[in-house]
């Protein structure tokens, strides 16, 4: 394989990853719209559906939000009936947050076709193919997490002044 061919493949892969990110963003926008949530609230709901009952501090860490922002988000979501807060069974001074069962059912109804379509799309891959894809995504997630840490440590750019 020539260097030009590898460069071309790497460029195409990079373009496809970016196109995939845009498609996921657009899909998330539509899921949020259907569920009546903003994107941050959808990210919270998705995390709760995946992880189960979760402490607000973990939500802050996972979502990259301040504790104050998480409190405001949870107040909004609880008032709207999306989540419930209950005392932590291990420490009654703390609370755990969970998606309300009827909201979880609605979310799964919206997301299940995507999951099923994705499952069908990988059915033809061999175990070695799946291992390669897992390796790619594990590495890609690691890159994103490192870059998020780097970006969070940076000072925001100041807008250019108008002339």
UniProtKB/TrEMBL annotation:
Which InterPro entries does the record associate with it?
HTH_MarR-typ (IPR000835), MarR/SlyA-like (IPR039422), WH-like_DNA-bd_sf (IPR036388), WH_DNA-bd_sf (IPR036390)
| Origin superkingdom | Bacteria
Tell me the Pfam families matching this sequence: MarR
Q: Tell me the first and last residues of the signal peptide.
A: none
Domain (HTH marR-type) spans 6-142
* Protein name per its UniProtKB record: MarR family winged helix-turn-helix transcriptional regulator
């Amino acid at each position: 394989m020539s260097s030009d061919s590898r460069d071309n493949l790497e460029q195409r892969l990079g373009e496809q990853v970016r196109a995939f990110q845009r498609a996921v963003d657009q899909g998330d926008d539509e899921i949020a719209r259907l569920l009546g949530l903003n994107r941050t609230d959808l990210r919270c709901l998705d995390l709760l559906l995946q992880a189960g009952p979760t402490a607000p501090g973990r939500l802050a860490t996972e979502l990259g939000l301040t504790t104050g922002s998480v409190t405001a988000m949870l107040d909004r979501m609880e008032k709207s009936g999306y989540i419930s807060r209950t005392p932590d069974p291990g420490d009654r001074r703390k609370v755990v947050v969970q998606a309300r069962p009827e909201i979880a059912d609605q979310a799964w109804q919206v997301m299940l076709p995507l999951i099923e379509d994705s499952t069908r799309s990988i059915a033809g891959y061999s175990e070695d193919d799946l291992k390669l894809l897992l390796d790619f995504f594990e590495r890609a997630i690691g890159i994103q997490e490192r870059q998020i840490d780097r970006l969070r440590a940076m000072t925001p750019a100041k807008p250019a002044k108008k002339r």
